[in-house]
Amino acid sequence: MVFSSPVFLFCFLPLTILLYYFGHPKLRNYVLLLASLFFYAWGEPTLVFLMIASIVINYVLALFMDRSGKKGVKTVLLIAAVVLDLGFLFFYKYFNFTVATFFRVTGVLLTARTIALPIGISFYTFQIMSYVIDVYRGNVRSQKNPFYLGLYISMFPQLIAGPIVRYIDVEKQIASRTLSPDKFYEGTLRFMKGFAKKVLIADQLSSFVDMNFEGNIDSALVKWIAIIAYTLQIYYDFSGYSDMAIGLGKIFGFDFVENFNFPYVSQSIKEFWRRWHISLSTWFRDYVYIPLGGSRKGTARTYINLIIVFVLTGFWHGASWNFIFWGLFYAVFLVIERLGFSKILEKLPRVLRHIYAIIIVVLGWVLFRAETMSGALNYYKGLVSPSDSEILNLRIYVEPMLVFVIIAGIILAFPHDRIKAALKKFKGYEVLKALSLFALFILAVCFMTGAGFSPFLYFRF
Description:
single chain
């Protein structure tokens, strides 16, 4: 089940809200837990038991860890939890990739069946691991109620594609939270905003992007437009989902962390990763980069740590060499900036800094979107290999509606603080904002019902 589907909008969500708000207050967590398990089981009827098993195992290990007064015992329990969590992730997400890589390197063919990838396993695995690691560190106490821990892991608003919510950030909210008309209203507006971003921008670019990455178009100009379109598609798809998740959280009384902060205004790669997928960046910072030593153990070690973190960041996204090289691609530029290029950037005009950052990001998305490394390399080659019929290809493939969506996507990718500040001076600003979002939401619903099923891009991660 996805947020941008009729069954979710018109059946699941209204029924869940009714049961949640009009049932007994003490049962709200259980209503939300059952709804979340049903939500996941709708698309993964058997693999939901894998998530339940992960919850139970980590609940027990964290409980014993919290009760033990011996450092050695706690360390063993933590290792057991992390090994089991990563073991599940490896088996379902990386086993086939490992077998295929082993065959390419050695020529030895191993028999392996195709393993279905559980939706959202990367997200909920990282949430589980943050919980047990924080219990080990003493940052939080273990959750005594297994159903409450189950709710934290399986909560449907952010279960499938984030943001990655750390237990320490919602521990108190799970135990007690405040529902209010203002929060419900704010959450509804945020959900409508994310829904419109997903359906009216991201979905409208998908077929054009797919057509280009399938290799059916021989035109450098069209390929450049396609990768710009994908740059917008993945942002509005993923940030749209995050908006919906944060909005739904508010409807049910939760405050989730922000996941995006206008990443395409960045003027360096370092700044980009402070603005893009913030919950993932902070997870790797707190649970990998800092434990490795961060920047405290000398320059060379800092660069090694950065490379490790970003290779893992790429690999987290998928079992493919494309993702590994995508992470390495960013690691190289981050190291270059740390080596002194950042000081050169500071002396350049803002517009040149921005052009530098956005070109790197756009080119990086080729690695991310292509199915194979050869496909990515062929796409790069196509970007600098114009055909004899560039103008004709533009007329055939680049339709006015596509141009409109791309321009709108570029404009809306910037914060426009001055315009918002000016509009807020008018008394009817809040009403106008609400009516505008509602109109866009209704339009998006019309597009959704006409287009059919459209999964979120990050579901495969």
